[in-house]
């Protein structure tokens, strides 16, 4: 994004955002409620058009590229995706629909597709869920299935929009372990992980972007951004930061 601004109803929601992601980097986008995170994601996916500035995604410049084709290379896991799915489908069909980037399945899948789905689910320790109806799963199980679904299309960019919201600590750690494994695969897509919670920033997230009221507050290498000084300023609260298992944990001073 080069000098990207987005205005709605006389309000400047995103203000002069410059953001470049290199291949091999994985980013966390952190901001409080209403800071503009979803608006940035909608711009990246071409669902909104910037009021000013330039956007290129996966080397394709907006305005010169077919967005429907580009979207096939972007996996997106979000709460709104979860609402759009047909909850009465089996998890095999939910995961398989990711291959076609559709909500349901409209083509006859080949047997090898189902083999791939089963392998994927087993790989993510979800083998015991095979045959289950999606809406009967727990929230944590649903998130893992949705991430698996997004991987079916072999995306080059995977956007995870607050995947741990509403999860208990155990389910959250399971989802984070899955994300860590994805990030460390040789063929990993570039990850953008959106969260309000600093402690969810895994060591695999090389870079962090702190967004505040539609502006870049800080961005750069996670180790340089996730400091006591920067985070205290960002949250306007006196905080101490403790490092544990390569993650930063915040405490009120
Ligand atoms: N289409 C729109 N028209 C008018 N205002 C909008 C529109 N979309 C977003 N906004 C406003 O822009 C601001 C940023 O919203 P956005 O949803 O991007 O924030 P967010 O960081 O994703 O918040 P949250 O963490 O609560 O999901 C909010 O004040 C929101 O009301």
TrEMBL record:
SMART domains, alphabetized: AAA
Localization in the cell: Cell membrane
Record-linked Gene3D superfamilies: P-loop containing nucleotide triphosphate hydrolases (3.40.50.300)
Pfam families: ABC_tran
Domain of life of the source: Bacteria
UniProt key word Hydrolase: no
GO terms for cellular component: plasma membrane
GO MF annotation list: ATP binding; ATP hydrolysis activity; transmembrane transporter activity
InterPro entries reported in the protein's UniProt record: AAA+_ATPase (IPR003593), ABC_transporter-like_ATP-bd (IPR003439), ABC_transporter-like_CS (IPR017871), ABC_transpr_CbiO/EcfA_su (IPR015856), Metal_Ion_Import_ABC (IPR050153), P-loop_NTPase (IPR027417)
Topology in membrane: Peripheral membrane protein
Keywords: ATP-binding, Nucleotide-binding, Transport
Domain ABC transporter per the UniProt entry, residue ranges: 1-238
CDD domains noted in UniProt: ABC_cobalt_CbiO_domain1 (cd03225)
Full protein name: ATP-binding cassette domain-containing protein
Lineage: Bacteria, Bacillati, Bacillota, Bacilli, Bacillales
